[in-house]
Structure formats: structure tokens, C-alpha cells
Amino acid sequence: MARLIEELKKLPGVGSKSAQRFAFHILRSSDEDALALAEAVRGLKASLRLCSVCNNVTDIDPCNYCSNPARNHRLVCVVEEPTNITSIERTRGFEGVYHVLHGTLSPLHGIGPDQLRSATLLARVERGEVDEVILATSPTLEGEATASWLATALRGLSAKVTRIATGVPAGSDIEYADEVTMARALEGRREL
Amino acid sequence: MARLIEELKKLPGVGSKSAQRFAFHILRSSDEDALALAEAVRGLKASLRLCSVCNNVTDIDPCNYCSNPARNHRLVCVVEEPTNITSIERTRGFEGVYHVLHGTLSPLHGIGPDQLRSATLLARVERGEVDEVILATSPTLEGEATASWLATALRGLSAKVTRIATGVPAGSDIEYADEVTMARALEGRREL
């Protein structure tokens, strides 16, 4: 029991109290339910892994994007987390593939370039397999630092390096744009 | 009294009840206060007008921006309302001048190109006095329609026509960007 509580406490946002409650719940539940939970936890790790090409979470390797011949494998969109891929897929406008960093640079939290999964991306670009790398990290402090570090790391290689636009969100009045966003919207203006 | 109530009801968000309350308040207040209010209303119209160059609300003509020799008068930023100038001035990054349309195209509300104050802008561009027109209307339905109408009206003239960037706002996670904004952020990506 104590061992289970210790393990449950490792889940994010779960303290001693919650862990104890979970453990008692499992104790009271049927054998099947407890085994199903154990099996689901074991199965997740057994079936899900990171794509060896792009680091996306996947049950097949390479992942669905990297193994899809209909996509443009010479156009790589770099994102922070696997969930960001959903945001980009929803636009139905991106035909390329992805690379997941699994985080952003964050010196305060001890996350430096070595902690980010960028090696396979750099290798692909170095081998000349990529025409354009789109840096689609968020326009937050960490996301910008990560984009600028990656841009430097990719400098001198053959791929074009681009950054997604920062600006006033679609459908929103410029009245509500903060000054940094407004400054970036002006700076990033495009010829019509 | 009835005449005052009728006039007060023309103020936005003021109905019969509020107008009556205002009127009785004025009735009860001192002669000086009532006269000061009347004088302030009269004075506003007497002292404030629209700049003959850019249509900004101003007490001198031309306005502070149009008469400032330190600003670049060949770079014109087109906005919907005088208050939008504040949003752009806050960025401290814009050195040009403005043109205020006083509205956006809105066929549903009967606002067509003739209702917008664009004549002086077109005349300035036609006279070759402008190098670049930045269309800084909001990325809303009406703002986009207005920008695209103006871009067409300016086509073939000597000035470059640009549009402010639509994209993920600064400091915001791409997780929270809607798909139209995300699509525009990708589309508007810039080379680093």
C-alpha cells in the first residue's frame, strides 16, 4: 500500500492526501478494475514511443506524419510539444512534416540546448534533406529564446529558416492588442 | 425640460429614465454648474475638429502628427478610428503619419466606400507624396474588407501598400491560437 501511495504521489498535482484516496479507491475496486488499470499503464509504455525521426509520440515508428508519402518531407515545422501538432493540423494548410523538441530553453529550470531533442533535426538538415525549417515555437520568452538558438544552430546549413508570424490575432480588434504585439504586427507587415 | 430630455436621450446607452435623471440633476444643480456643462459641450465642438490632412480629431489644424517635421510624412498608417492611433503610438516604433477612415466598410450597416473618409489619402498618394501606405485596420471581417478595398483603390499608384501582420500575439502560447490565426501565422512566416 505504501509503495503504491509513493508511486501515485509522483503524478503531477497529486499529494499525499490524493494519493491515499486513490490507493484506497483501488483497494476497494474489483480485481478486474485494478488489473485493467495496471495493464493500461503498462500497455501505454509498451505501445507508445517517440518517433525516431521527429520525436512525436506515436504507436508506430516512424510516426504517421513521417511515414506519409503524401506529405512534403523537405518542409519541417519545429514545435515545442506533441500537442502543438494538433494546433497546426487544424489549420488544414500545412503539408510538411514536424519535429518535436519536447520543451523550450529555460535556464531557470536547468533546461539548456542539451536537454532539447534537436539532434535528429540538425542531422536531417546537415544531410541536405530539408529545404525549409519553420520555427513554430510560441512567441513567449522561452519560445523566442528557443527559436533564436535553433536559428543560430542552423545557420550556414542549406535549409531556409523561417519564423511564424507574431501579430494581431484574426478576428480581433487592434484596440485590444498589447504594444509588443502591435509593434511586431507593424514590423512584420507584408506587401499586398 | 422635455427638450433637454430629448437631447440627452441621443447619447449612447441613455434611455428615457437616465435622461430624466440627468435633466433633474441639472435642474437641481447651481447656475454655474449648468452653464459650465453647456459651455463645455459648445466648446468641444468649437475647438475640436478633424485634421484636414489625416482626419484625426485635433484642436489645431493640421494635427500634431501632420505638422511635426520630425515624422516621416511619406509613410502613412491607415487606421479605422482616432483611438487606434494611441495603440500604434504606444509601440514607440512608428515614425510615420496617419490617416483615419472613421469606420470600416459594412454593407449591412449601409457603410460603403463613399461613407469612409479616404479622399484626402488617395489624393496624397496620387500626388506622389507617399512611399508606403500601411493598412492597419483590424484583422476582423470589416477591417479586412476595408483593407482589401483600399489596396485595390491604391493599385497602380506609386506607393507600396502593406498590411500589418496577423499571427499569434506576443507572449501567448500557440496552444491557444485559433485555427485561422495559426494558418495566418504560418502563411505569414518570415525568413530569419
Commentary on this structure:
2 copies of one chain form a homodimer. Chain A has 192 residues and is of the alpha/beta class. Helix content of chain A is 40%, strand content 14%. Chain A has 7 helices and 7 strands. The first copy, chain A, has helices at 2-8, 16-28, 31-47, 82-89, 119-126, 141-154, 179-187, and strands at 49-50, 57-58, 72-79, 96-100, 132-135, 160-163, 190-191. In chain A, the strands form 2 sheets. In chain A, strands 4-3-5-6 form a 4-stranded parallel sheet. In chain A, strand 3 (72-79), helix 4 and strand 4 (96-100) form a beta-alpha-beta unit. In chain A, helix 1 (2-8) crosses helix 2 (16-28). The longest helix of chain A has 17 residues, at 31-47. The model of chain A has no long low-confidence stretch (mean pLDDT 91). The interface between A and B is large, with 54 and 54 residues. Strand 7 of chain A pairs antiparallel with strand 6 (160-163) of chain B, so a sheet runs across the interface.
Helix and strand topology:
Two copies of one chain form a homodimer.
Chain A: H1 2-8, H2 16-28, H3 31-47, E1 49-50, E2 57-58, E3 72-79, H4 82-89, E4 96-100, H5 119-126, E5 132-135, H6 141-154, E6 160-163, H7 179-187, E7 190-191
Parallel strand pairs in A: 3-4, 3-5, 5-6
Antiparallel strand pairs in A: 1-2
Helix pairs in contact in A: 1-2
Question: Which key features would you list for this structure?
Answer:
192 residues, 14% strand, 7 helices, 4-stranded parallel sheet, homodimer, two-stranded antiparallel ribbon, alpha/beta
